[in-house]
Design brief:
The protein is α+β, with helices and mostly antiparallel strands. 48% of the residues lie in helices and 31% in strands. It has 3 helices and 4 strands; from the N terminus they run ααββαββ.
Length: 124
């Protein structure tokens, strides 16, 4: 009887994990669909215009209306300027610096920014 209860508990945990994975996949699918509709291209174009001179993006992922970016900048002041620029871009909001590390090539950073995927976001 206890063995059956343990198996049932394990099954419940597994189903909960699968539901979480399903929700994450649905969020990613919505992001991909928005990108396919052409909305994402506009966001990426605006992002490019927000990059200060010398900033190089080394990674870019889109997940659940959040853009995760990593890159290199000449200085921490340039990273701060990037964050200010992102806040001024229509359709982007809530930029958060996740990590900053000094490296031989300058400053490595990771950040997240919210993306409004709708036609109501006007261009630059």
């Amino acid at each position: 009887m206890q063995h059956d209860s343990e198996q049932l508990d394990e099954l419940i945990v597994r189903l909960s994990d699968l539901a979480g994975q399903r929700d994450a996949l649905l969020a990613q699918l919505q992001g991909v669909e928005a990108l396919q509709d052409g909305q994402g291209f506009d966001v990426f174009e605006r992002l490019i215009h927000a990059l200060p001179h010398g900033v190089q993006l080394t990674g870019l992922t889109f997940e659940a209306a959040r853009l995760n970016a990593s890159g290199l900048a000449p200085s921490s002041a340039t990273v701060a300027r990037l964050l200010r620029n992102l806040e001024a871009v229509p359709g982007l909001h809530g930029s958060e610096l996740q990590d900053v590390t000094a490296s031989g090539a300058g400053v490595a950073f990771q950040l997240r920014v919210g993306v409004q995927l709708s036609d109501s976001a006007s261009g630059p």
